[in-house]
Amino acid sequence: MILKRKTIKSEIIYEGIGLHKGENIKLKLIPSTFGGIVFKRMDLPIEKRIINLAPENCFDLMRGTNIKNEYGEGIYTIEHFLSALAVLDITDLIVEIDGNELPIIDGSALEFVNLIEKVGIVDLEEEILPIVIKEPIFVSKEESHVVILPYDGYKITYGIKFEHTFLKSQMQEFEVNLETYKKEIGRARTFCFDYEIEYLKSNNLALGGTLENAIVIEKNGVLNPEGLRFEDEFVRHKMLDIIGDLKVMNRPIKGHVIAIKAGHFINAELCKKLKKI
Q1: Which of 32, 96, 156, 192 could crosslink 92 through cysteines, CB 3.0-4.6 Å?
Q2: CATH among 3.30.1700.10, 3.30.499.10, 3.20.20.450, 3.30.930.10 for 132-274
Q3: How far apart, in whole angstroms, are the C-alpha atoms of residue 152 and residue 195?
Q4: CA 185 – CA 196 distance, rounded (Å)
Q5: pLDDT average, residue stretch 29-38
Q6: 122-139 pLDDT, tens per residue?
Q7: What is the pTM of this model?
Q8: Edge-to-edge order in the sheet of strand 58-59
């Protein structure tokens, strides 16, 4: 099967709040016919603006997926945006942004999908080679594990476990395709525990976080008045994240990803191994 590189048909302009700095972010997505996914920090001097999406540019992966250029200038919290690009097979795009993080929107990735589908997607002339898994590839650190197995398609199995009175263990498995993503994965929101909020705020993080863009978990439930979108929304969001994290490769994947208590750092380590394929 021949896979074509893809871009969007026309420009997209969006404004929204960034999760960590809490600032209003202006985002412009511009069609591109080559060069992969390129971020341009419009708030920086011209010579420091370009940040290319690549595994070797990932850094500071504790609470999100972030990339930086040779000047140390970065783009933060890109995993939800990348997740949408991955499921839409977008390979070439210029992303102009006037700050250092993506808008958080409602804490999920579905609106990014909707924005792109509204303008449409176009095939480019150039083909793209998928990453075809022919033997198991495994990364592990302490209690975090991720393995990718040979599989004729793209599937994710994910398990989470927390020592918490409300959120304990959840496991889910889905084929990764646009229909399933829009119905089962893309709507799942990011989350944190109530006891983390003070620490985050004191470290100038989550300054834009509200109950409108994140689930906050308390002792016996969630603080969000509307409740959960899925009973297992937490593990579904982790699946959303890993789809975005593996998009750092910017190549389609043929394999079965199995993740247990994984996170952005482990996912980035897997990308380093996938780069050798």
Answers
A1: 32
A2: 3.30.1700.10
A3: 42
A4: 25
A5: 97
A6: 999 999 999 999 999 999
A7: 0.97
A8: 58-59, 66-68, 74-75
* Structure tokens that stand for 188 in this block: 């799942």
**CA nearest to 230, candidates 163, 277, 185, 165:** 185
Nearest to 128 by CA among 86, 178, 91, 85: 91
Tokens of 192: 């944190």
Query: What integer pLDDT is reported at residue 1 of this predicted model?
Result: 65
Q: Is 276 left (phi over 0), alpha (psi -120 to 50) or beta?
A: alpha
- What would the pLDDT profile of 139-160 be if each residue is shown by its tens digit? 999 999 999 999 999 999 999 9
The rounded distance, in Å, linking the Cα atoms of 145 and 141 is: 7
CATH architecture of 4-127: 2-Layer Sandwich (3.30)
d(CA 36, CA 31): 11
Supply the residues annotated as catalytic. Answer: 264
Q: How far apart are CA 21 and CA 204, in angstroms?
A: 7
